[in-house]
Amino acid sequence: MNYLYAAYAATWIIHISYLGVLVRRYTRLRHEIEELKKQ
Amino acid sequence: MKRAFPVLAILTAVLLSYGLYQALVVAPTEQTMGDVQRIFYYHVPSAWTAFILFFVNLVASIVYLASRNPKTDALAVAAAEVGVVFCTVVLVTGPIWARPVWGIWWTWDLRLTLTLVLWLIYVSYLMLRRFSSSGQTPLIAAVLAVFGALDVPLVYFSIWFFRTQHPQPVMGNGGSIDPRMLHALLINWLAFSCFAALVCWSRYRLEVLRREVDETQALEALLEKGVPERGSSR
After folding, report:
1. Does A21 lie at the interface with B, CB-CB under 8 angstroms?
2. What's the pTM value of the predicted model, to 2 decimals?
3. A39 CA to chain B: closest CA distance, Å?
4. Is residue B210 part of a domain?
5. Are A10 and B39 inside 8 Å of each other by CB?
6. What is the four-CA torsion angle of B74, B6, B52, B36, rounded to 10 degrees?
7. Which long-range contacts (CB under 8 A, 24 or more apart) does B216-220 make?
8. Are the Cβ atoms of A36 and B92 closer than 8 angstroms?
9. B206/A26 CB distance under 8 A
10. Which site from B21, B44, B78, B202 is most exposed, i.e. has the minimal number of CB atoms within 10 Å?
11. What residues of chain B lie within 8 A of the CB of A37, using their CB?
12. Is the residue at B214 inside a domain?
């Protein structure tokens, strides 16, 4: 059972990590847009 | 699409939960491998979803080569990146299944090696997009995508035409499966496909927005420097 849980956990760790990367990129982009609006 | 996004997100969450329930509770335990076989309900749908995303990348790249439409190029990048994530899941869950069943984490079997090569091709594609500053980058990447996609049918059909250590196909080519197992497999495939569509759409929007910001910043920089007079560079 440990291998089964490890595989399912690994799948969601990979997906959630990628979603985290997307959120970070989006936050940086929002910041750049706000900077451009200020100018 | 803005209105459809939350609906699709809720549908995806419901399908993923239902898929997990089907995989862990409803699907019968396989006689020889036991519970570890249930990895199959995440491993196989992830592989099929990765293939679909690489196919989207191929179509978008061909359309870009024909039309030079930057939006199709943005879609190609998004599909390749999300495809690499799903392919990573395949390459991680496969060895976790192989260790208790085969007694080894990895073997240089044709199916496994071709899948690793497929992952490396699309990682190279993303590296090219990330680090090349040439104006021809989208064009070169589109050509790479067209040739890279040739590996997808090789991966898929490798277990049909060659003797490999990888399990044989469960559907087609004489394969058979318990209907409850098939149901769990297809539900998880549908769930992962919806999830991939959501993530790919978000990545596509991010890419389009990124390009708009880059263009605006370049324009700002030009305006700050002042537009050079005609012939002043000579």
Report:
1. no
2. 0.91
3. 9
4. yes
5. no
6. 130
7. B216/A36, B217/A32, B217/A36, B220/A36, B220/A39
8. no
9. yes
10. B21
11. none
12. yes
Is B52 a member of any domain?
Answer: yes
In tens digits, chain B (234 residues) has pLDDT values of: 678 889 999 999 999 999 999 999 999 998 889 999 999 999 999 999 999 999 999 999 999 999 999 999 999 999 999 999 999 999 999 999 999 999 999 999 889 999 999 999 999 999 999 998 878 899 999 999 999 999 888 888 877 777 777 777 666 656 678 889 999 999 999 999 999 999 999 999 999 999 999 888 888 888 887 765 555 444
Domain that holds residue B184: 12-28+37-164+177-233
B104 backbone φψ class: left, alpha, beta (φ>0; ψ -120 to 50): beta
Residue of B194, B205, B198 whose CA lies nearest to B77:
B205
Instruction: Determine, for residues B213 and A29 on separate chains, whether the beta-carbon distance falls below 8 Å.
Output: yes
In single-letter form, the type of residue at position B41 comes to: Y
Residue B172 lies in a domain: no
**Measured distance CA(B35)–CA(A4) in Å, rounded:** 7
Q: CA A31, CA A34: separation in Å to the nearest integer?
A: 5
Put simply, the answer to whether A1 touches B206 (Cβ < 8 Å) is no
Report B:103-142 residues touching A (Cβ under 8 A).
none
| B177 within 8 A of B171, measured Cβ to Cβ | yes
Kindly state the tokens that stand for B60.
């978008």
Q: Say how many domains are in chain B.
A: 1
Query: H helices within B68-178, ranges in order?
Result: 70-102, 110-131, 137-148, 151-161
